[in-house]
User: Fold these one by one.
Assistant:
Number 1:
Amino acid sequence: AQSVTQPDIHITVSEGASLELRCNYSYGATPYLFWYVQSPGQGLQLLLKYFSGDTLVQGIKGFEAEFKRSQSSFNLRKPSVHWSDAAEYFCAVGSPGNQFYFGTGTSLTVIP
Amino acid sequence: NAGVMQNPRHLVRRRGQEARLRCSPMKGHSHVYWYRQLPEEGLKFMVYLQKENIIDESGMPKERFSAEFPKEGPSILRIQQVVRGDSAAYFCASSNQQETQYFGPGTRLLVL
């Protein structure tokens, strides 16, 4: 079955601290992997994506993610969090011409 | 280049009324996806359309829900005889060449 698991429902970090959001997936084909961010009342903005090649991908706003096939993971990281990063983060998996499967999201709170 | 546009942004309906949600994909995109987001949950796939064709409607409720993407004009998600359980945020995404999906701001539907 296709699914995405984000084990952390809510994470709180101090501004300037590092961040890692976990994502594990189950997918029957070669996965395309995505991280989106959603601010309250807003739509989803694409942070980064992985299709193939280098397993460490860089995204916008200083985010990066690493694809680990052996662990079926695609964790999102940021070295130093800013207050404006507070939002809901969604991991998604899919493939061309097919629906995306989303995790239930991780809510990030940033403490000044 | 305008992004994915959805209207209305907010929609209030009484039980039994019809709701029509519109989505204009990004310029050059011919693939449209509809997702529903319930409070505190991730996005759930509903339907995938190309111009004048429904490609995958496996996520659509069997009754009251329908979608179209005509040759001209926006994609429409139609909900007939709405019930309180239909209250949710409905997101449209579009893609080109079946790659990355870009999301609109969503329509928040409230059924009274």
Number 2:
Amino acid sequence: EAGVTQFPSHSVIEKGQTVTLRCDPISGHDNLYWYRRVMGKEIKFLLHFVKESKQDESGMPNNRFLAERTGGTYSTLKVQPAELEDSGVYFCASSQDMASVSTDTQYFGPGTRLTVL
Amino acid sequence: LAKTTQPISMDSYEGQEVNITCSHNNIATNDYITWYQQFPSQGPRFIIQGYKTKVTNEVASLFIPADRKSSTLSLPRVSLSDTAVYYCLVGAFNQAGTALIFGKGTTLSVSS
């Protein structure tokens, strides 16, 4: 079974440009999460999708970040315009529908390393 | 989610047993304890989860005392490849959509 995949693995852009990150969750997982780690900080939650609906966006830092999950499959996270402080590693995770499991184990992708110059 | 405290770093040698203890004094009745492992340039990987007493899988054991205010991750006979950051997380993981709250974790360095 394929794990969570993320694309690209690395992205280097200039301040003011736009970048779109993609996450493909494990097949059949309804829950999809975005996290990020900025320089020297802990991994922080950004938002959570249940299928195509945003369940919790409390971690999104500002309106320069836009996440979508059309059709409830893969998700994209767009940063527009990118700022220097957006540099970091962006992780995606997915978990199964809670009706089928007793605890919510989240499976993480390898992350996308974003560098804003 | 309950706050956790764990050592920032630990050193070990190959073949030794490593025990990493995590304190979670404010754990709630419906909270589970979960440990994740993260290698450089990879995402966190689920290791083990428990609610009380002892849980064992092919990777590690998790010991939880009766008061559940702490837990100990035990890695038997570590190898160089066990060098990683280990995170202890506490939360109501029986609820969908729980945002995981990561602390600084424990950086384990295994030497030959």
